[in-house]
């Protein structure tokens, strides 16, 4: 496994504006945040409104980012649908969201399958002891949302996005499926 920063196109292109305290890639602002912060938010949401409602809220957040990013980088770099998905998968790792692997992109069947190893969300979730109302379908709703938003942008129709297995549920890695609704 490569660990050098030299392979990370996002980090090498990231700009830092000291007066704003802002990190940007291609003019788009990003922030670093500890996974424990997100796990804490998720734990409180689950306790307050249940795992399903919490999942929907986090999914919606990820979805917005995925749709915007998919569209932006597709246009900026003149990418095909497949190239945009490959770019987003590579970027997922480069911004620290785990190691993304495109398993299947079938534009005809409107189906996208992505595996993610070492999800920081699942690791932090387990470390936080969020063992209350854990969804059997997985807890990495931000990744699920990003892929849902990306898939909807690519397929041009409303989609369902599922996490079919999750590291937080003692599976070796997480896997996601995006399908036309
Ligand atoms: Zn997961």
- The radius of gyration is 16 Å
Binned, the helix content reads 40-55%
Largest sheet: 4 strands, antiparallel
Structural class: alpha+beta
Shape: globular
Mean pLDDT score: 91
Q: State the distance separating the first and last CA atoms.
A: 37 Å
Uncertain parts: none
Instruction: Give the helices and strands as they follow along the chain.
Output: HEEEHHHEEHHEE
Strand runs, count: 7
Please count the helical segments.
6
Strand content: 15-25%
Bound molecules: zinc ion
Strands ordered across the widest β-sheet: 4-5-7-6
Task: Describe this protein with a few key phrases.
181 residues; alpha+beta; four-stranded antiparallel beta sheet; three-stranded antiparallel beta sheet; 6 helices; 7 strands
Structure write-up:
It is a single chain. By secondary structure, this protein is an alpha+beta fold. 46% of the residues lie in helices and 22% in strands. It contains six helices and seven strands; from the N terminus they run H-E-E-E-H-H-H-E-E-H-H-E-E. The strands form two sheets. It has a four-stranded antiparallel beta sheet with strand order 4-5-7-6. A three-stranded antiparallel beta sheet has the order 1-2-3. The protein is globular and about 40 Å long. Residues 119, 122, 138-140, 163, 166-168, 174 line the site of zinc ion (ZN).
């Amino acid at each position: 496994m490569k660990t050098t920063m030299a392979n990370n196109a996002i980090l090498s292109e990231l700009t830092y504006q000291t007066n704003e305290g802002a990190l940007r890639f291609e003019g788009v602002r990003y922030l670093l945040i500890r996974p424990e912060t997100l796990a804490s938010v998720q734990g409180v949401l689950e306790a307050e409104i249940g795992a399903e409602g919490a999942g929907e809220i986090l999914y919606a957040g990820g979805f917005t980012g995925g749709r915007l990013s998919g569209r932006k980088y597709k246009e900026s770099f003149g990418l095909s649908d497949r190239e945009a998905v490959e770019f987003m998968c590579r970027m997922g790792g480069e911004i620290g969201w785990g190691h993304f692997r495109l398993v299947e992109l079938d534009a005809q069947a409107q189906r996208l399958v992505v595996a993610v190893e070492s999800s920081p969300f699942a690791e932090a979730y387990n470390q936080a002891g969020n063992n209350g109302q854990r969804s059997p379908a997985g807890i990495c709703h931000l990744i699920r949302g990003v892929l849902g938003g990306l898939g909807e942008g690519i397929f041009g129709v409303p989609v369902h996005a599922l996490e079919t297995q999750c590291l937080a549920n003692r599976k070796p890695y997480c896997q996601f499926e995006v399908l036309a609704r």
